[in-house]
């Protein structure tokens, strides 16, 4: 295919001292960029009106709770495991960039988290008690509100009202009806004090919400393909969720019986959901995008992006979409970026070495986690000088190993929010292992927390949080390895590939939002098949990480 003219990498970064507020309604959030220039404003690629529909009042459910994981029937487990073995489903066929790629950007990640120097530390380190059903594909997601933690994953749901000291369990297989599969996501909305919960079923999605200190009484809305003008035989897979000022946003991939059909983004008014009322919702269904991922936190405008489209080249382009809360029109922006090698299921990527088997055989470059939106801080830099008056969007995704990168790595890219001009990139890479499944979130200062899975030669898949703030302004930033693996990834029964993920999450800790809660999982011994219950062999952690200066902003809410 013909290669686009792309910006070249400049080998040395410059630190930009900038304290500014972007020309959008957002609190100050961070950026950190290195790459090509962006000077004159760049136009949008296109825009169109969203569709709309109405939904009846939600179903109010008072959950049955227990102090131990609920019992699940073999039939329920078999159905969930069978569905999970096929998820995430492959992306659509697209043109793929196959030209040269740049050398690694910046310094590599150290083999251990010794780059987490100074006063960066774990403020709360909680392990979800062993027991109950656990999948080797953990998909953990959690959020925090003071001393209240809500944690979900494959195949469990639990909350704690004392910072994870004790846990109360819910049953995702029964709480909102039968057919639960996987892909749960937890997001807390500070401004409305609502905990949101997204679950995937065989033929629909469920979005539920509860008071931030309740977590027992839930209002649930079910979403079927027919809610969006699609045939009832279509199915959803691989979801993201985020909040703006007014709306809860959900994205999901849509499949027909014959294969990929498109990507769906829909939004629901938070005020009405909080009251379990009926409402008008808006949605966008497009056949040209796959695996859309939102920024977090967002303000009066939601942004999302994808590196997988059917009408652009994979590995050298990126599409950003923008939708204001007070508008029915959304915009999209197609941008050329510095190239990388795109990764697909069953490719030649390798994340193992020695006794560590290749845990990324069933990994691709789709957007597994969200991005962030922010104005520059001391951590902002790029190779062409300052953008100290520009709000910046950041996204990250998996990239395949190449002649310059011995292992798969994470590419992080940056755009000027005002016109989505491409600013450059940075990377989490290493000569000894892979860094994959990134999820990013900005705190109240605009500093970025970045959860990741990592592993390689002699290192089983493990979990870490990378912090990019005023003390760690340049790559490789600072890293806290909060969970060490001791076993190999599970084997997917559907295709014989070893797999991890399929995602992790990180959230700013509410209400102060100066620290982060990261989720991770590891194997304590070698896993079996992914469709089998791994039980206590799967360790799930929810940790709060921050600077010494921010300890009080977190601990004052623990009491």
How would you describe this protein?
The protein is mainly beta and 559 residues long. It has one domain: Methylamine Dehydrogenase, Chain H. Helix content is 4%, strand content 40%. It has helices at residues 74-85, 270-274, 551-555; strands spanning 46-49, 51-55, 59-62, 120-127, 141-145, 148-153, 156-160, 168-170, 180-189, 194-201, 205-211, 217-223, 235-243, 247-256, 259-269, 279-286, 289-290, 293-294, 301-306, 308-309, 317-324, 329-336, 372-374, 392-399, 409-416, 421-428, 433-442, 448-456, 459-468, 478-483, 490-491, 498-499, 506-508, 516-523, 538-547. The strands form nine sheets. It has a five-stranded antiparallel sheet, with no helix packed on it. It has a five-stranded antiparallel sheet with strand order 2-16-15-14-13. The longest helix is centred in the N-terminal third of the chain and has 12 residues, at 74-85. The radius of gyration is 21 Å and the shape is globular. Residues 1-37 and 381-385 have low confidence and may be disordered.
């Amino acid at each position: 295919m013909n290669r686009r003219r792309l910006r070249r990498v400049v080998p040395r970064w410059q630190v930009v001292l900038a304290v500014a507020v972007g020309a959008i309604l957002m609190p100050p959030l961070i950026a950190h960029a290195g790459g090509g220039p962006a000077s004159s404003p760049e136009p949008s690629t296109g825009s169109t009106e969203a569709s709309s529909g109405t939904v009846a009042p939600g179903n109010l459910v008072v959950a049955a709770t227990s102090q131990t994981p609920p019992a699940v029937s073999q039939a329920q487990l078999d159905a969930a495991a069978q569905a999970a073995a096929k998820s995430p489903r492959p992306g659509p066929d697209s043109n793929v960039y196959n030209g040269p790629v740049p050398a690694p950007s910046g310094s590599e990640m150290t083999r251990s988290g010794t780059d987490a120097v100074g006063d960066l530390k774990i403020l709360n380190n909680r392990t979800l008690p062993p027991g109950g059903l656990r999948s080797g594909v953990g998909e953990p997601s959690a959020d925090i509100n003071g001393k209240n933690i809500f944690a979900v994953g494959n195949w469990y749901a639990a909350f704690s009202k004392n910072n994870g000291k004790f846990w109360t369990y819910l049953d995702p297989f029964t709480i909102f009806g039968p057919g639960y599969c996987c892909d749960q996501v937890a997001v807390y909305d500070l401004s409305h004090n609502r905990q949101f919960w997204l679950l995937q079923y065989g033929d629909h999605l469920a979005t539920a919400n509860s008071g931030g200190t309740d977590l027992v009484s839930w209002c649930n809305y079910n979403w079927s393909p027919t809610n969006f003008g699609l045939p009832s035989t279509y199915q959803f897979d691989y979801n993201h969720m985020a909040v703006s000022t007014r709306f809860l946003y959900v994205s999901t991939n849509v499949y027909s019986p014959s294969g990929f059909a498109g990507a769906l983004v829909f939004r629901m008014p938070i005020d009405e959901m909080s009251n379990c009322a009926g409402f008008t919702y808006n949605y966008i269904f497009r056949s040209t995008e796959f695996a859309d991922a939102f920024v977090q936190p967002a303000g009066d405008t939601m942004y999302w992006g994808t590196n997988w489209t059917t009408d652009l080249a994979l590995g050298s382009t990126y599409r950003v979409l923008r939708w204001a809360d007070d508008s029915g029109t959304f915009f999209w922006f197609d941008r050329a970026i510095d190239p990388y090698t795109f990764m697909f299921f069953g490719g030649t990527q390798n994340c193992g070495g020695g006794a560590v088997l290749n845990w990324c055989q069933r990994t691709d470059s789709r957007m597994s986690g969200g991005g962030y939106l922010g104005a520059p801080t001391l951590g902002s830099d790029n190779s062409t000088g300052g953008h100290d008056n520009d709000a910046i969007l950041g996204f990250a995704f998996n990239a395949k190993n190449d002649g310059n990168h011995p292992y798969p790595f994470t590419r992080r890219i940056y755009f000027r929010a005002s016109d989505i001009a491409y600013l450059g990139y940075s990377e989490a890479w290493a000569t000894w292992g892979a860094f994959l499944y990134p999820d990013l979130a900005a705190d109240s200062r605009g500093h970025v927390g970045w959860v990741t899975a990592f592993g390689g030669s002699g290192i089983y898949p493990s979990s870490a949080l990378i912090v990019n703030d005023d003390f760690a302004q340049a790559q490789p930033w600072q890293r806290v390895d909060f969970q060490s693996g001791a076993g190999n990834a599970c084997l997917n029964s559907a295709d014989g590939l070893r797999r991890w993920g399929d995602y992790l999450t990180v959230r700013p800790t509410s209400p102060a939002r100066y620290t982060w809660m990261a989720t991770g999982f590891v194997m304590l011994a070698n896993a079996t098949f992914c469709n089998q219950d791994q039980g206590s062999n799967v360790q799930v952690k929810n940790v709060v990480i921050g600077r010494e200066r921010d300890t009080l902003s977190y601990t004052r809410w623990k009491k």
